């Protein structure tokens, strides 16, 4: 029986070696369910890892759900060949532990599951896909996103839009509406919150059971491939949230898979993620490393995903982060570093960089760890970008303040300038900032609707000009008032109210400027691309700076007034003699403001201002951001 099963598994010894040494890069082709012939006429082979199980049995539609004993194979694997199994049938593994307790389990490598609350794995063949995105792939291979626009629209699949009866959109329906919407509004990428199989919609996808499958309520892996292919044809990249730190503890899933700690840490103090009610992957166990490494590569290779946003990196690199603080287990050197997690992330990022150099690896890391985007050596983790959580926290605190408290809190605006280039940052205003009583972006701002929208416009334009790549969560671009709810679609009807449609047009305008003005992205991660002009005017609460592209003439001056008080005139330092003009004024009537026409152009006069040799006088509207560009200047090197 062993020989029959092994003969159905190509290169078993080599595959086992890679698996057990934590370096297998396509484990989903080795474990799980696979046809034993090119078609499914001869059934499937099933292989599962349950190293300390007493026995394992297969049951499914093809055997009337009777328990069919699987054969113990080397290295903790169990296998069986079923000549009766067919595509589309349901199945599970029955694990019997060493004390005789039986638990019904999913196949960790299944590519499809029943829609919750049902949970059986579905027999699926991952056929080759006819991709038509060669032009996109060729383009991104030549793209250095450190010097190109990166403006991400974060989406929760099932609540962007729903049908009137509450049904979720299909991938096809979402492709037909979301992709052109994102392109029209000037974003470069869509980022999906986790799409992998998860039993509870309220977890937003962050408590996963099936890592190699798209959630059944959303569709199939092939449906996702179709969506990505269409996005790429439209010139839009697709990113996915990925959760390699912890997993759902539902009994049917990965939790204590063989009746003992299998995917999780042996020490319950390290295994239990009390704050989230989940279990932490044992990132030092080679088989788990193979499982996660192969999973990352699965989405990149099989689905052409353009990048992975790795969730909760802090929990992977520290032993005392979050809910671990009261009962944490020190490393052998007595430190709070999780060296297994650090090592795994370094290896992951090295492999991805080698195999998919065009892919973006992004870290959600909430501390001041040095080297998240440094080379993967020492304590450097090797990510391409890191969410700038410090900037986000400071700015969220600031915009929630009433006007009279902003002057005394001016440092919340200026402190992020001190570390803006410590890492390769993405400025993320994500779903986490508009839930759990935190209010929507609009709802955070004090005052009447006019002043709320004026501040929101000023903030949005300021953020697009601040150094770092960009991400914001769906709904902000329409000025949604209610905080996000995962169980209902966005408040699209607000676009019929005053200011909302105008704000959406403003977002489109600024997003377009971000993609066309080289000063806003070419030196985004280089300190030479930023010159701070005014960061000391706490009384007026005004911040101004200059952004510089690679060519001397490619520069913009940005000034933001965070109080409802106009400044006429307002003097701003400029680097060259000549004439300047307004490129953007967030208070124009077309955006919902009160300005009917632009002022200017502005002629310089010789006066050292903001450290610059020349100056111009402009009008800085209340609660506004203005972009100023050179129209005709002298003394600058020719392009």
From TrEMBL:
A single BP term in Gene Ontology: glycogen biosynthetic process
Pfam families on file: Alpha-amylase, Alpha-amylase_C, CBM_48
One MF term in the entry's GO annotations: 1,4-alpha-glucan branching enzyme activity
Pathway linked to the protein: Glycan biosynthesis; glycogen biosynthesis
Domain Glycosyl hydrolase family 13 catalytic: 123-523
Gene3D superfamilies per the UniProt record, alphabetical: Glycosidases (3.20.20.80), Golgi alpha-mannosidase II (2.60.40.1180), Immunoglobulins (2.60.40.10)
PANTHER family for the chain: 1,4-ALPHA-GLUCAN-BRANCHING ENZYME
Function per UniProt: Catalyzes the formation of the alpha-1,6-glucosidic linkages in glycogen by scission of a 1,4-alpha-linked oligosaccharide from growing alpha-1,4-glucan chains and the subsequent attachment of the oligosaccharide to the alpha-1,6 position.
Protein name: 1,4-alpha-glucan branching enzyme
Species annotation: Bavariicoccus seileri
Lineage summary: Bacteria, Bacillati, Bacillota, Bacilli, Lactobacillales
């Amino acid at each position: 029986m062993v020989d029959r099963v092994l003969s159905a598994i190509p290169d078993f010894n080599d595959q086992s070696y890679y698996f057990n040494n934590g370096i297998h890069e396509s484990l989903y082709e080795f474990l799980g369910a696979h046809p034993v012939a090119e078609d499914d006429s001869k059934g499937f082979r099933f292989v599962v890892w349950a190293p300390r199980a007493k026995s394992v049995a297969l049951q499914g539609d093809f055997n009337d759900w009777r328990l069919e004993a699987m054969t113990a194979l080397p290295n903790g694997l169990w296998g069986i060949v079923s000549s009766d199994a067919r595509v589309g049938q349901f199945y599970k593994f029955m694990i019997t532990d060493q004390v005789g307790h039986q638990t019904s389990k999913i196949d960790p490598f299944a590519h499809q599951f029943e829609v919750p609350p049902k949970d059986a794995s579905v027999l699926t063949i991952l056929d080759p896909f006819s991709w038509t995105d060669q032009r996109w792939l060729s383009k991104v291979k030549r793209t250095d996103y450190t010097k190109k626009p990166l403006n991400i629209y974060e989406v929760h699949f099932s609540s962007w839009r729903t049908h009137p009866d509450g049904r979720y959109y299909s991938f096809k329906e979402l492709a037909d509406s979301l992709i052109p919407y994102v392109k029209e509004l000037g974003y470069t990428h869509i980022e999906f919150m986790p799409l992998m199989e998860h039993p509870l919609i309220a977890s937003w996808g962050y408590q996963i059971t099936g890592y190699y499958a798209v959630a059944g309520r959303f569709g199939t892996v092939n449906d996702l491939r179709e969506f990505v292919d269409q996005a790429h044809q439209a010139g839009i990249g697709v990113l996915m949230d990925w959760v390699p730190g912890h997993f759902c503890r539902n009994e049917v899933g990965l939790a204590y898979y063989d009746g003992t700690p299998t995917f999780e840490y042996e020490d319950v103090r390290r295994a239990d993620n009390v704050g989230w009610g989940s279990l932490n992957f044992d990132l030092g166990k080679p088989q788990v490393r193979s499982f996660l490494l192969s999973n990352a590569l699965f989405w990149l290779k099989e689905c052409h995903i353009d990048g992975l946003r790795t969730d909760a990196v802090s929990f992977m690199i520290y032993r005392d982060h979050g809910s671990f603080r009261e009962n944490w287990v020190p490393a052998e050197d007595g430190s709070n570093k999780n060296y297994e997690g650090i090592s795994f992330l370094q290896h992951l990022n090295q492999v991805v960089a080698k195999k998919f150099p065009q892919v973006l690896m992004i870290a959600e890391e909430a501390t001041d760890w040095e080297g998240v985007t440094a080379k993967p050596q020492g304590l450097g983790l090797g990510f391409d970008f890191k969410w700038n959580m410090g900037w986000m926290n400071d700015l969220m605190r600031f915009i929630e303040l009433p006007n009279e408290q902003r002057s005394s809190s001016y440092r919340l605006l200026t402190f992020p300038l001190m570390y803006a280039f410590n890492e390769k940052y993405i400025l993320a205003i994500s779903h986490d900032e508009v839930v759990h009583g935190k209010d929507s972006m609009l709802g955070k701002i004090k005052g009447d609707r006019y002043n709320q929208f004026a501040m929101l416009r000023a903030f949005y334009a300021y953020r697009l000009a601040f150094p770092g790549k960009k991400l914001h969560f769906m709904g902000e671009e329409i000025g949604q008032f209610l905080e996000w709810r995962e169980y209902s679609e966005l408040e699209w009807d607000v676009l019929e109210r005053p200011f909302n449609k105008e704000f959406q047009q403003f977002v489109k305008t600024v997003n377009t400027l971000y993609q066309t003005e080289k000063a806003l992205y070419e030196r985004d991660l280089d300190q030479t691309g930023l010159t701070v002009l005014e960061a000391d005017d706490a009384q007026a609460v005004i911040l101004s700076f200059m952004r510089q592209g690679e060519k001397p003439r490619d520069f913009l001056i940005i000034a933001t007034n965070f109080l409802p008080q106009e400044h006429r005139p307002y003097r701003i330092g400029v680097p060259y003699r000549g004439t300047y003009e307004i490129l953007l004024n967030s208070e124009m009537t077309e955006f919902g403001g009160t300005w009917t026409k632009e002022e200017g152009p502005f002629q310089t006069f010789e006066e050292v201002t903001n450290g610059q040799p020349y100056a111009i006088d402009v009008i800085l509207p209340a609660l506004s951001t203005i972009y100023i560009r050179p129209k005709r200047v002298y003394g600058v090197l020719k392009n």
